[in-house]
Amino acid sequence: MTLLNGKHIVLGVCGGIAAYKSVELCRLLVDAGAHVAPIMTSDAEHFIGKVTLSALASEPVHTTLWDDADPIPHTRLGQRADLIVVAPTTARVLGAYAAGISSDLLTATLIATRAPVLVCPAMHTEMWEHPAVQENIATLRRRGVNVLDPESGRLAGGDIGAGRLADPQRIFDEIVQLLPPGDLYGTHVVVTAGGTREPIDAVRVIANRSSGKQGYAIAAEANARGAKVTLISTVELAVPFGVTLIQVETAQQMQDAVNMSAQQADVVVMAAAVADMRPVVTSTSKMKKNPKTGVIDGLESIALEATPDILANLGASKRVGQVLVGFAAETENLVANAQAKLQRKNVDLIVANNVADTGVGFGHETNAVTLVANGAEPVVVGLSDKRSIAKSVMDAVVLIRSHSTH
Ligand code: C5P
Fold this sequence. Notes:
The protein is an alpha/beta fold. 33% of the residues lie in helices and 23% in strands.
């Protein structure tokens, strides 16, 4: 499931008998691809164990303002969140939140965030109907806080009435409503990243300077926009949560991995720097230096042969509606060369960068590109971090898809 891919959700849990239902909610959110950061109030710890939530969530439970290495966990949690859900919400937390009193980590986070908030009150009917609670609810609603009213039913101690926490599935559905899926939801995006390494012998390779950072940024961006993402990479950086990584080394291994996953893909982004040539003969053992001559016998010269052109192969077998993206590192005639490549390899978009410029491309944290697509004016994206470049690339992909599906 990718419904909530890339979404950061803070799950607040207060001290009520319904706290056990937060465990089920946590599971639903994680299964849908969300990153869940749980916060428990100290009263919540009387009802469920920290270990239970920590094991199911995406990070360990946070409980106080003071036990974190981070001196300001509430602002970090609040700023990073796409949504905060509090289930169950007790009368105390409703009151503190409505009054703006940050008496613990959960209330501090609620006050520190600009993300949408969903509170799910649960308490005995007498408490729920108390004017103070109802006025707090009205205040919070007026301020734009989303309130999922409790249901009527059996309460703790055998009483029956209004105040029972809404069903976890119902809370989950409400969260999905508040966090509409991204514009790549329902698509499968395959991204390649990093430079291939072509073996000469057991220890030596022909490699290039690609760091894989741009490919990883594209995978992260597609993931955050709701796509199912397969990342085929020669390097292992921090894999975005929810992305499937396939590690490869050579151009041939990358071609094989692409063959396995790209057939059904809606979008393939070839961000990898694939070696164009590889040694014809490779040795499985380490070739030794001749102590007399100082050279490695048999390595005076290396005969090279072409590797498979993965992108061209994809272009030759492109399905209707499939979007192919290639990269082009150029030192001159950027747009003309990109346009030629677009035709030659039958791709829909070329991301061209002038590697002669400083701060651009291989190994850098930043990039500057020109997006060249069929029948459209080239789009220049100035020097920016690789995630911003990834955003522009995926914007262009979404535009191409909208043309081909309408
Ligand atoms: O033709 P050129 O090598 O400049 O094209 C670069 C683009 O083609 C990149 O997207 C790269 O990932 C891809 N490529 C490939 N297989 C190769 C060489 C390049 O898929 N053997």
